[in-house]
Structure formats: structure tokens, C-alpha cells
Amino acid sequence: MDQLLLVEDDVSTRQWLAEMLSCAGELQLACACATVREALDWLRAGNKTDIVLTDVGLPDGSGLEVIREACKTPGREVLVLSIFGDEKNVLSAIDAGAGGYLLKDGSLDSIRDHLNCLRSGGSPLSPRIARTLIRRTREANPSPSIETGTSLLSDREIDVLTGVGKGFSYAEVADALKIPPTQFEPTCARFMKNLPSIRGPRRCMNTTAAWSNRGGFPFADDFIQRPDA
């Protein structure tokens, strides 16, 4: 059974998550902390921790410290759950090693599903976070004189991220793109691993240029329609 470390300073949210996680048969809440110091002490003490669920805004520092410490152990997964969805926090968390990033504005009710996604190799993202990542990788305007090279993202990875950014569930995007469930979550995870490299100015231009060469940004508004549309 996987052991989970919860790092959340809001008392009511921490209690709610602790109660919910105590009912998750496949996960066991090993420790619930309210501060960076408590979390670091727990991790550095060598306690078994397979997954870390952490906020980034904590009273005595940044959750990024927790993420970096957690990721020193190979195979340990980190999922961010926060009210902060700005680009700086999102990219910093991913650079530090987070495997997923969720906002508290609607992600709490399905947190167990998101944790299962993370455990199976996926990278849970709130739609707003996915849009932030899309915007970041499209910021640079490619010049015709810039060598495009090989895109860091495959066509399929770009399509998946865009579908999530439009607010479709993972299941809806996978169904629309005809991606088997066993391949969908690893596709999201590959994007997260590539993101730190994409952040570099030249690589960002290369990726955007590759999209342009495909004939424009994929996932047009009519690319996917909900069943009831």
C-alpha cells in the first residue's frame, strides 16, 4: 500500500483530505503536515513516503522546498494542490519535480481519481493549468530564419494537452483521439517531463514553429464536441 504525505496549512482542508484519504483502500495517509519544516523533517527522517500531496503556499516558506526534497528519492511522486495557478508557481513546481498540478477550485472532489492517475504514470492537470502550459509554449513568435529542429512534443501530446485545456475530462479526450487508456496517462506524463526543456527561449521557438508547420494549432474549437453538443 502506497504511503502518502499530506502538506496543507489550511486546517479544514487538511482535515477533509485526511478523512478522505483514510478511506482510500489503495493509499494510506502516513503523515499530515501544516508547514514546510514539518514536511522536510518527515522526509529527511527516512519515513516511507511514496506520494507527496502538497500546497505551494505554506506559512513558513514555499512548497517548492518540499517538492525538491521529495524528488531526491527516485520513484517518489509529487502532486501539487493549490489555489495558486499563476505561471510562475506552476512552472517552478514542475521544474522542481512535481508530476501534476491541480487547483483547489474543483479538484478536491475527485482527488482520489487524480492520485490514482499519478500512481499509474499520469500527470493530473486542472484545465486552467493546462491552458497556462499551452500559452507558455506558444509565447515565442518563430522567425522563418530559426531552425525548427525536432519538436519536443509529439503531435499527440499537443492534442492531449489542448483537449485538457479546453476543459474536457481525460476520458473524453482519450475517447475523441482514440487513445487506449494504457497510453493516455503516459502521454500526459511525457509532456510534463519535456516542459522544463521547452521553457528555454530557443527550444520554445522550435516547438511553436513545429506547430506552425503542422498547419496551425491543433484541437480547433470543432475538433472535439461533447456528446450532447
Strand and helix layout:
Elements: E1 2-7, H1 11-22, E2 27-33, H2 36-44, E3 51-54, E4 57-58, E5 61-62, H3 63-70, E6 77-82, H4 87-96, E7 100-103, H5 111-119, H6 127-138, H7 155-165, H8 170-176, H9 181-198, H10 201-213
Parallel strand pairs: 1-2, 1-3, 3-6, 6-7
Antiparallel strand pairs: 4-5
Question: Concise description?
Answer:
By secondary structure, the protein is α/β, with parallel strands linked by helices. 48% of the residues lie in helices and 14% in strands.
Helicity level: 40-55%
Q: Give the class from helix and strand content and strand pairing.
A: alpha/beta
Average residue pLDDT: 76
Number of helices: 10
Main beta-sheet annotation? 5 strands, parallel
Any low-confidence stretches, pLDDT <50, length ≥5?
Answer: 140-150, 197-229
Rounded Rg: 18 Å
Portion in strands: 5-15%
Strand order of the largest sheet: 2-1-3-6-7
Query: What is the CA–CA distance across the termini?
Result: 41 Å
Overall geometry comes to globular
Task: Explain the overall architecture.
There is one protein chain. It is built from 10 helices and 7 strands. The relative contact order is 0.11. It is of the alpha/beta class and 229 residues long. The strands form 2 sheets. A 5-stranded parallel sheet has the order 2-1-3-6-7, sandwiched between helices. The C terminus is likely disordered. Helix 2 packs parallel to helix 3 and helix 7 crosses helix 9. Strand 1, helix 1 and strand 2 form a beta-alpha-beta unit.
